[in-house]
Amino acid sequence: MGKTYKILALLSITLLMSFSTKKNCEILKNNTFKYRNAKKDVVVVFKEDKHVEYHNDKEHFIKSDIEWVNDCEYYLIIRESTLPNFPFKMGTKMHIIVNRVRGKKVYYTSSLGGKSWEGRLTKIKPSKI
After folding, report:
1. pLDDT confidence of residue 27
2. CA 72 to CA 62: how far, in whole Å?
3. N or C, fewer C-beta in 10 Å, the chain?
């Protein structure tokens, strides 16, 4: 009986270790997502070291370079925008840390200019852009 408990304990520990808090942020690489802003969907496309956000049914965009720190942390460097009244200068650097990934959802914290906010991206099927 004692041997059975030891084996059960070992299997339990192994199973718990397989559910560790390590995040798999590979979902961000070369995928398309959406988030809501002012009750409208914003489409976000990650391609290698490029990031594009499409606003107002793809009428406007924000293009950024991605500077990867690791798989779950990166900087967006804003390069071009056609979004009216865009508040940031070209070259502005935003810091993003992925907090967790659950299925098709990526939860993150963004920081810029001493302010931070949390957000969520949901993976979608890419459309022709």
Report:
1. 93
2. 21
3. N
